[in-house]
Amino acid sequence: MDMTGEERIAAAREAVWRALNDVDILKRCIPGCESLEKVSDTDMTARVKLQVGPVRATFSGKVKLSDLDPPNGYRISGEGQGGVAGYAKGGAVVHLVDDGAGTLLKYQAKADVGGKLAQLGGRLIDSTAKKLAGDFFQQFGALVGSGSASASTSAVTVRKVGWFRRLWLRLFGRSA
């Protein structure tokens, strides 16, 4: 499956870049995230527990960042295993562009899911992904806007939601 989108974030590009690369902020924002650890500057491991319809699964996965161009964007790729529930693998290209006083985050993602989760149906998977995306950005905006991140990212407020959660779900079990 392929997905493209964009989100307008009311903060400078550099601030958005730092927040999107802060493991502590991401861990606190990703629904069901049990762990998110930076292995190196370009590698992370994650463990996320999610439920889609009747299927509950804990996904363990690896994420790799490449083509780093701070603060303009990068390529993210990953794969996750959810045991009998299934698997997900994919990647995305993320670009940050100045948009007045804010930043426009654009992405193009491709993903493949399999196992029980792939059998649930697109509507259920998509609606769950949208809800999780909304939850992620609500928390992201609250944390970054409250000063919990850093002084340079404290003005970040998210106007539209969805890109990161959809990306996360596509990488680690879109249907999870």
Q: Helix and strand succession? A: EHHEEEEEEHH
Give the structural class: alpha+beta
Terminus-to-terminus distance: 15 Å
What name does the CATH topology carry? Alpha-D-Glucose-1,6-Bisphosphate, Chain A, domain 4
Radius of gyration, in angstroms, nearest whole number = 15 Å
Chart the SSEs and their pairings:
Layout: E1 2-9, H1 13-20, H2 23-29, E2 33-38, E3 43-52, E4 55-69, E5 73-81, E6 87-99, E7 102-114, H3 122-145, H4 163-172
Antiparallel strand pairs: 1-7, 2-3, 3-4, 4-5, 5-6, 6-7
Helix pairs in contact: 2-3, 3-4
What does this structure look like?
With 176 residues, the protein is an alpha+beta fold. The protein has one domain (2-172): Alpha-D-Glucose-1,6-Bisphosphate, Chain A, domain 4, CATH 3.30.530.20. It contains four helices and seven strands. It has helices at 13-20, 23-29, 122-145, 163-172; strands spanning 2-9, 33-38, 43-52, 55-69, 73-81, 87-99, 102-114. Strands 1-7-6-5-4-3-2 form a seven-stranded antiparallel sheet.
